[in-house]
Design brief:
The chain has about 375 residues and is α/β, with parallel strands linked by helices. It has 3 domains: about 120 residues, Nucleotidyltransferase, domain 5 (2-Layer Sandwich), CATH 3.30.420; about 90 residues; about 100 residues, no CATH class. Helices cover about 55% and strands about 10% of the residues. The protein is built from 15 helices and 5 strands. A 5-stranded mixed sheet has the order 3-2-1-4-5. Helix 12 runs parallel beside helix 14 and helix 13 packs antiparallel against helix 14. The chain is elongated, with a radius of gyration of 24 Å.
Length: about 375
């Protein structure tokens, strides 16, 4: 039996009379058929000392996405499984409505005579923090507004305005426009893959990757897959601009000339990819189950990433100022401020320190 194959009766039985608290994570998202869903997962240690996890509910969420409504949905499931008297800690993302949800849950528990501190019992998802920090590095201190603007233009089918919006984001935005243009036509994709095989016969993959706006990992993969066949990508775009590939009459090949990447652009893209490598390492490590991604990983991850940013900023500051160094320093400053902000929230609860103190691998450090 895997950790997610419990029946409801088995879950209720497993959660009865536990000597330690039951911990939770929950999140809201919208499915592809435009329905809001709230997923709630329980985490606990069995009487045999084994870590267990299971989904308690994946329910349709109705109403506004407020903290009050999330708390009501969680409380209904807690009562259904008869565990409202044994609630431990919550790991949630950094949305402010989760602060409200914690206060509402605390009020319900206090009405039962159970003391519950909504600040000390809330842990923040480090994966979500890394996602926010990298998006700030890539897209500035207000990436949500940028995402909303691109979504609006896409829904309006205003192709030219969307191209211009991405172009304002610098080399990474120009690369995005190129990849989108190639990906919109099977003929372009085929011709590009032929060019990759011609110029980079050692390449194991000729396909480009489209970045994923809600999650930064897609942007990193987009960079890696574009930088490897750089020569092929440059040659393909140059041909498209100068010869109007396939005699197409739309405006894209003409617009594409504004997205042609200069040698300086390629330097910036390479610098961005190298800068993001430690973030990618921790992103993958924190996705581990049981052996990694534990509470005692939080401080080492944050410390390493803050030090990495400080080192890179110092290295760029020591160089002669140019467009590359100025752009990188500005982006690093934006990301550093955000990570430092969340680093300070770790002190709101003592469990991170307890995890380090109790972890055998950390006792001698």
């Amino acid at each position: 039996m895997t950790i997610y194959e419990f029946s409801k009766l088995q879950i209720v039985t497993a959660l009865e009379d536990l000597p330690t608290g039951i911990h939770f994570s929950f999140d809201l998202w919208t499915s592809t058929n435009h329905r809001a869903l709230l997923g709630i997962v329980a985490h606990w240690v069995s009487l045999e000392g084994v870590l267990k996890n299971t989904v308690l509910g994946l329910r349709r969420f109705r109403g506004r996405h407020t903290g009050e409504n999330q708390a009501e949905s969680f409380w209904a499931i807690a009562q259904e499984f008869k565990i409202e008297g044994n609630i431990g800690y919550f790991t949630l993302d950094n949305a402010t409505n989760n602060d409200t949800a914690m206060r509402c849950i605390a009020a319900k528990l206090q009405a039962m005579g159970i003391q519950f501190d909504p600040i000390k019992r809330r842990l923040r998802s480090l994966g979500h923090i890394i996602n926010l920090v990298v998006k700030a590095f890539l897209w500035g201190d207000d990436p949500e507004t940028f995402e909303r603007e691109t979504d609006t233009l896409r829904s309006m089918d205003d192709e030219e305005a969307e191209l211009q919006l991405w172009r304002k984001q610098g080399p990474l935005g120009k690369l995005h426009n190129i990849i989108v243009w190639i990906g919109r036509s099977p003929q372009r994709r085929d011709k590009f893959e032929d060019k990759v095989r011609q110029l980079h016969p050692e390449s194991t993959s000729a396909a480009l990757v489209h970045g994923n706006e809600p999650r930064w990992g897609g942007d990193y993969d987009e960079l890696v897959r574009a930088l490897l066949p750089r020569e092929a990508l440059e040659a393909f775009v140059s041909t498209a601009i100068r010869h109007n590939l396939h005699g197409e009459r739309n405006s894209l090949p003409n617009a594409l000339k504004h997205d042609e990447l200069s040698p300086e652009d390629w330097v910036i893209l390479t610098e961005i990819m190298q800068f993001l490598q430690p973030f990618r390492k921790w992103q993958l490590m924190l996705q581990g189950y049981q052996t990694q991604g534990a509470l005692y990983d939080v401080f080492p991850a944050m410390d390493e990433l803050l030090l990495h940013m400080e080192d890179r900023k110092a290295a760029y500051t020591a160089l002669q100022s140019d467009e590359v160094t100025r752009r990188m320093i500005t982006s690093i400053n934006t990301a550093w401020v955000l990570l430092d902000k969340y680093y300070k929230t770790v002190d709101e609860t003592s469990v991170y320190y307890s995890a380090i103190a109790l972890g055998p691998e950390h006792r001698e450090k």
